[in-house]
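Ticket #4471: structure output looks truncated?

Reporter: J.K.
Steps to reproduce: submitted the chain below (276 residues) through the standard prediction queue, then opened the result file.
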Amino acid sequence: MSDKGKDSKSSSEDEDERDEREEEEEETERAEDDADEDDADEDDADEKAADGDDADEEDEDDEEDEEDDAAEAKEPAPIRGAPPPPPPPPPAGDQDPTWWAPHAVLGVLVVIGVLGFFGAFNSTLGKYLRRSPAVTAPAASETAKPAAAPGPSAAPQPPSRQPPKRPEAAGPVYGAKHLVVQWKGATRSKQERSKEEALKRTEEALAKLKGGAKFEDVAKEYSDEPGVANTGGNLGRFSRAGFDPKFVDATEKLKVGEQSGVVESAFGYHIIVRTE
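Returned output as attached by the reporter:
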């Protein structure tokens, strides 16, 4: 019996300890549940506070919008087509001190134009514009000189290719132009070329003339006659007096406008074109 009593006593103690542990666990769980509820309440309070702040800000924004709308409604609407308002005048310290100068100049010009229109300056300026006949006459003659000029420019004109004037002589008179190529030893020759070289040069000139070259241009290039650059080889009118007979005979055989071949004289080799 004693053993059973001990066992029952120990079992009852175990049950008491188990009950106490269960109670402690329940209390611990309740405490944790209470703490969780408190945290949840705090979170809800924070969210409500934040929502309240947002609502307050939205209310403030709405109030500001309403105030702006009211201010715009009070301002008068701009008139369509009306010019924009003028800009405000600049401060007195920034104004240009010479702003009046252009207006003064314009005013003076307008006054001068009006006075000139009504002839206010005719009597005054007429005294200075009048000139005596002795002064105006040379001016008129000077102005007439440019009108008589052959061209618009004042450049000097080259001398005309006029043939030299020769004294009239009895007998037939001929007109011709020529080029002469001289050799060393010919009459009045200053050349150093041989007679063969002179002939070859004359034949070259003749070939160019037959090819259609202008006689004056060929004469300037090949002729040894002094002054050919100005005369172009034109001899004008001449007779037998003072000319080489061979030259005159060759000219006499040509028709007016006809060109000769190579003609030899004491002066050199010639190419002749009869003009009269």
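Triage note (M.O.): checked the attachment and the full token line is present. Confidence is low (pLDDT under 50) at residues 132-155.
Status: closed, working as intended.
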